[in-house]
Q: What sequence folds into this?
């Protein structure tokens, strides 16, 4: 069974750093692209970027380039989303989502449960 | 590419037909247009992707059509579990983008 299990909710202060995770299982982790998607409270979906764990090829939306870092660790079948300096406006639910087909630059077919990040002083 | 969905909210009864629109600011290859369903407190669920592919486990009452800048998701007969928010998503041009969503609510 394909599963993407994300790390738990986080409460942080502005200026702090954070790294959240997304662990894949039940499939070949290195052969599917993984998307990251933001959903701010009560709002719609925003595509942040995508990574191919096989070679760490990463693409970012210009809206998120330089604001976050997407990475992956093949040895642990885990993708990551990292902030070096959080802002209150980073408060949101963050989802990882595995591409539909292996190797293809695909949208999310299997989704994690989401990680709620709250940034507040 | 900006995706504009209409209407913002669709109020219908179970058994009725739902027609959701997604209009793009530039032409989108229909091969790279997807639709998602999201219920409160849940992650989005992929309904359709590619030109005509229905995601695994999605009933055939969900169908997609369109080309160029105009796309439509049709739910032939609404079931109680279909009341949710629907998003279109283009993944043909970087950056990938989502529409703002259409809420299908019970009338």
A:
């Amino acid at each position: 069974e394909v599963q993407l299990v994300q790390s738990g909710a986080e409460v942080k202060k502005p200026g702090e750093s954070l790294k959240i995770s997304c662990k894949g299982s039940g499939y070949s982790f290195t052969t599917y692209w993984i998307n990251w998607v933001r959903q701010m409270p009560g709002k719609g979906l925003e595509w942040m970027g995508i990574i191919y764990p096989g070679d760490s090829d990463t693409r970012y939306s210009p809206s998120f380039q330089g604001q976050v870092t997407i990475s992956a660790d093949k040895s642990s079948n885990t993708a990551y989303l990292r902030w070096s300096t959080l802002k209150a406006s980073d408060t949101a639910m963050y989802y990882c989502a595995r591409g539909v087909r292996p190797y293809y630059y695909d949208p999310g077919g299997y989704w994690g449960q989401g990680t709620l990040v709250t940034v507040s002083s | 590419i900006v995706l504009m969905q209409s209407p913002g909210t669709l109020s219908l009864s179970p058994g009725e037909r739902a027609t959701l629109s997604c209009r793009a600011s530039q032409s989108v290859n229909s091969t790279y247009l997807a639709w998602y369903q999201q219920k409160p407190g849940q992650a989005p669920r992929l309904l359709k992707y590619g030109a005509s592919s229905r995601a695994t486990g999605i009933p055939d009452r969900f169908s997609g059509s369109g080309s160029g800048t105009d796309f439509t998701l049709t739910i032939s007969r609404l079931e109680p579990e279909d009341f949710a928010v629907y998003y279109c998503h283009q993944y043909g041009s970087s950056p990938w983008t989502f529409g703002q969503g259409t809420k299908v609510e019970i009338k």
